[in-house]
Amino acid sequence: MRTNKTFWTAALFIALALASALCPTRPAAQLGSKAEEQSFDYDPEATGKETPKIQEFAAETTFEDAVMVNHPIYGTVMFSKYRWRNWVTRALYLTLINIALLAIIISLSKTEEYNIIVAYVLSGASFAMSIWTFFCAILIFRLEANAWIYVAPVSAVTALISYIVLMKIKKYDVSLTELKESFKKMSAASHEDQRLVSVEGTPGDWPNEDFIKF
Questions:
Q1: What is the distance between the alpha carbons of residues 62 and 67, in angstroms, rounded to a whole number?
Q2: Quick check: helix, strand or coil at residue 31?
Q3: Where are the alpha helices (DSSP H) in 23-147?
Q4: Rounded distance, CA 111 to CA 116, Å?
Q5: What pLDDT, on the 0 to 100 scale, is given for residue 111?
Q6: How far, CA to CA in Å, does 77 sit from each of 72, 109, 176, 198?
Q7: How far apart are CA 164 and CA 102, in angstroms?
């Protein structure tokens, strides 16, 4: 059975090889064919003859919204007139992220110590977002766009809100610390040895009860 299978496989391979060899194909170089029938312009008989000149095309591109700058190091550089829109978009994204951080900080419970730690971290991130938004306003101003007029106040407002939220977190932190200290004092007082409790009076008020005799 295995011999028959090998025989038929070999026969099929030979048949495919013969079919590909006998299949009419065009010569690789298309020797002697007409110029319009050739798929490429190579002709061995044209050796020494004048080859036709290839038409050269000049690529032209117009930049109606571009600004050309002659940089002393990088040479001629072209910038878009509307680059400031990218910075406005970035400032918008930063502001939205900042608002989300502030909402998370406000919604956190301030009665647990780990929540206060998380609130401190998020408050720092919010303040950093405000600074980045202000940097976007500076870049927009340098690009001579009027969009900085409303980007800069937004960064100032978010920074002010971040500062107010930080002060509230600090207030909660101080209150929680004082509460913990009071609980520690109460716990220490409840476990204090009554023999060491201080009493009112001065030495010598109870001469009959003094255990040190001179």
A1: 11
A2: coil
A3: 84-107, 113-142
A4: 8
A5: 76
A6: 10, 53, 59, 85
A7: 11
Instruction: Give φ, ψ of 70 to 5 degrees.
Output: -90, 95
Residue 69: the pLDDT is: 75
- Torsion 31-37-40-41 (CA) sign: positive
Work out the angle between the directed axes of helices 148-190 and 84-107 (0-180°, nearest 10): 20
Per-residue pLDDT at 171: 82
Show the DSSP H helices in the chain as ranges.
2-22, 84-107, 113-142, 148-190
Closest CA to 147 of 79, 93, 86: 86
Q: Report the half-sphere exposure of 96 (CA within 13 A, side-chain side).
A: 6
* Start-to-end Cα distance in the chain: 125
Closest CA to 132 of 95, 86, 82: 95
Q: What is the pLDDT of residue 82?
A: 80
List the structure tokens of 27: 């010569």
> What residues of the chain score a pLDDT lower than 50?
2
Rg (CA), the chain: 44
The confidence score (pLDDT) of residue 141 equals 92
| pTM more than 0.90 | no
CA torsion angle 104 107 111 115 (round to 10): -10
Backbone angles phi, psi at 17, to 5 degrees: -65, -40
Token couple for 155:
């960064």
